[in-house]
Each structure stands twice: as C-alpha cells, then as structure tokens.
Amino acid sequence: EHALLAYTLGVKQLMVCVNKMDLTEPPFSQKRYDEVVKNVSVFIKKIGFEIGAVPFIPVSGWSGENMIAPSQK
C-alpha cells in the first residue's frame, strides 16, 4: 500500500528493506529472503516500478543489522 501511494505521488525510486531477517530459520535465511523478494516484486511491478532498479536489502530492525553499515549476513 505504501508503494502504491508513493508511486501515485510521483516517487520514481524505491528501496525495499526486508525486515525481521533475524527471525528466519536459520537467521538471515537466503531461501526466505528470495521468497519475499519474489512476492513483493510481483506487486511492485504491477504498480509500475521497474524491478531491476529496486534494490532489496535484508535487515533486522531489532538488532540494527545491515541498516547503517553493511553486514556479513
């Protein structure tokens, strides 16, 4: 819904943070990250964003992992 509103208001660039990656099993699971990227990409493409230009960033808001500095996870 936020992506739709942003696009409607003229936002042309978007970055998606995939949050709660610390809660996946195992933590920062590549499989779960790929599932989220696939599902969200379908929605974002329907809105009108160019998928190749939208970065997806795995993060943990709770621990701050990969939010300010790049993480090895």
From TrEMBL:
SUPFAM superfamilies membership: P-loop containing nucleoside triphosphate hydrolases
Record carries keyword Nucleotide-binding: yes
Record keywords, A-Z: GTP-binding, Nucleotide-binding
Keyword Lipid metabolism on entry: no
Domain Tr-type G: from-to ranges: 1-67
InterPro entries to which the protein is assigned, alphabetical: P-loop_NTPase, T_Tr_GTP-bd_dom, TRAFAC_GTPase_members
Alphabetized GO MF terms: GTP binding
Gene3D superfamilies: P-loop containing nucleotide triphosphate hydrolases
Superkingdom assignment: Eukaryota
Descriptive protein name: Tr-type G domain-containing protein
